[in-house]
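#struct-help
A.M.: can someone run this one for me? Single chain, 281 residues.
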Amino acid sequence: MKRLRIRHQTGFSYEGEVTASYNEARMLPANSDGQFVLHSQLEISPLSSQHGYVDYWGTRVSSFEILTPHRDLSLTATSLVEVREREHSATGISWEELPELAASQVQYIEQTRQTTLTQPPDDVVELARRIAAETSGPCEAAEAIARAVGESMEYMQGVTGVHSTAREAWAERKGVCQDITHVALGALRSLGIPARYVSGYLHPKPDAEVGETVTGESHAWIEWFCGDWHAWDPTNLIPIGDRHVLVGRGRDYKDVAPLRGVYAGPFRSDLFVRVEITRES
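D.P.: on it. Structure tokens below:
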């Protein structure tokens, strides 16, 4: 078990004065399998009252509005989380059982449908079908497909943006974790395997010393259902372990964006993001 402290700063600098803004932040982890939140808080500048709730997908949300003129918006989320290695269930189902189970609950049906961001190109669908034909069942196929997608794409910043689709990222064979996750989701859903987008953090240094602070980033990975939910990191080609901290789940990035909102003011704004992760035990 590891204890990780995460400090995530983000916000906007505007080219002029903003008279009002209305926002939602999804930056605080919640208790779930493999992790326990010891402490979490969100600080907002300019000072604003917050309303916290859990959204439809089970993600903690802080909604707030700022009605005083401002040129900068800054959020600092600080969390202390105990994370342990996840148990990866060996349960599985057959291809014959999958359609009935995938249609048995709303949570599975919703994660089987493609979105604009996950709609896969034809060659990704063909890749998924080929792998499925060579495997014994959906569980084995899902991991093999996630691995194949991760191995086929190069992690590279600056090639894609937050609105890039799986088709666009696959055409370049480059992107960030968000893009690789969208491609993997599209591939799995094309076979009728329920699969969901997961956002959170990944400690980038497996052998970090206690007390060592490193620069981190927001991260994304996938979970698929094949009798039980299984988690996998297609960007790093590893199962989810004690370096991953989960924040939210959804159909794609749009459901779990760390910060989104609307404002009245100048057209141009500059986003800033800084993440620091410290191993405390």
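A.M.: thanks! The chain has a mean pLDDT of 95.
D.P.: also worth noting: The chain has six helices and 16 strands.
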